[in-house]
Amino acid sequence: MRMVGEMSTQKVAVVTGSTRGIGRGIALRLARDGYTIVVNYRDAEDAAASALEEIRSIAPASIAVKSDVSTPEGAQTLIGRTIETFGGLDVLVNNVGPFLVKPLVDTKDHEWRETLDGNLGSAFYCIRTALPQMRARRQGNIINVGALNTDTLQVGVFEAPAYYAAKAGLMMLTRSLAHSEAPFNIRVNAVNPGFIETEEYAAYTEADKARWVEMIPSGTFGRPDDVAGAVSFLVSDNARYITGAVLHVHGGLFA
């Protein structure tokens, strides 16, 4: 265990909601890139154990931290445990966030709060907790995972107003922080996935899959590895002069 503030040659990446789907794909890619991973989960014990086992086969020092990052206390638990264990973190990927498809008029108060806290609040809490040590070390990368074209108004936004309001706020947070943190050598970027083959993909009807594929110019769904590759690039030295960017991973959909 390292003392808080002690420098380490080990590269550490925290990925929220990293037990499955896009989050797990990002965690595995960063592990292959040489990062030690901090897996985050709220209650999926079996999925967390499975993800950690796979990630440790690549990055043996990786750990899992159970915490609900949609709360300030949960974010403090995650980031605090990371700093206590490794002395700091180099990459923070804010991936977690519940999806809600419901007209605004039918959205309950608790659904609105859960959607905003899960998608936007979680990023705010984690970034606020991580920034002091990133600033002190004068280095860091923050990636916010948004959703399909959340910086524009497109079909689908009207079906999930709470979700897209939160993700649109996440894009503004990204750009604001890119400006304020650049003097500290901290880069902040966003990745917006389109239709990706995650665990939820199996639940789609064949009719829905066929309809959506017709909308995608590339003619295919993406994979978690596609999103992970974008994250890998943005946190690499190849992107050293990129901050405040929103990278779309959607096969040309609504481009």
Describe it for me?
The protein contains seven helices and seven strands; from the N terminus they run βαβαβαβαβαβααβ. The chain is an alpha/beta fold and 255 residues long. The chain has a single domain (12-247), classed as NAD(P)-binding Rossmann-like Domain (Rossmann fold, 3-Layer(aba) Sandwich), CATH 3.40.50. Strands 3-2-1-4-5-6-7 form a seven-stranded parallel sheet, sandwiched between helices. α5 links the parallel β5 and β6 (186-193).
Q: What are the secondary-structure elements, in order, as H or E?
A: EHEHEHEHEHEHHE
The average pLDDT value, as a whole number, equals 92
Q: Oligomer, anyone?
A: single chain
The CATH architecture classification is 3-Layer(aba) Sandwich
Say what the CATH topology is: Rossmann fold
Note the main sheet: 7 strands, parallel
Strand content: 5-15%
Total number of helices: 7
Helix- and strand-based class? Answer: alpha/beta
Quick one: CATH superfamily?
NAD(P)-binding Rossmann-like Domain
Can you tell me the overall shape? globular
N-end to C-end Cα span: 47 Å
* Poorly predicted segments: none
Bin the helical content. Answer: 40-55%
Order of the strands making up the biggest sheet? 3-2-1-4-5-6-7
Number of domains: 1
The tally of beta strands, per DSSP, is 7
Give the C-alpha Rg.
18 Å
The CATH class name reads Alpha Beta
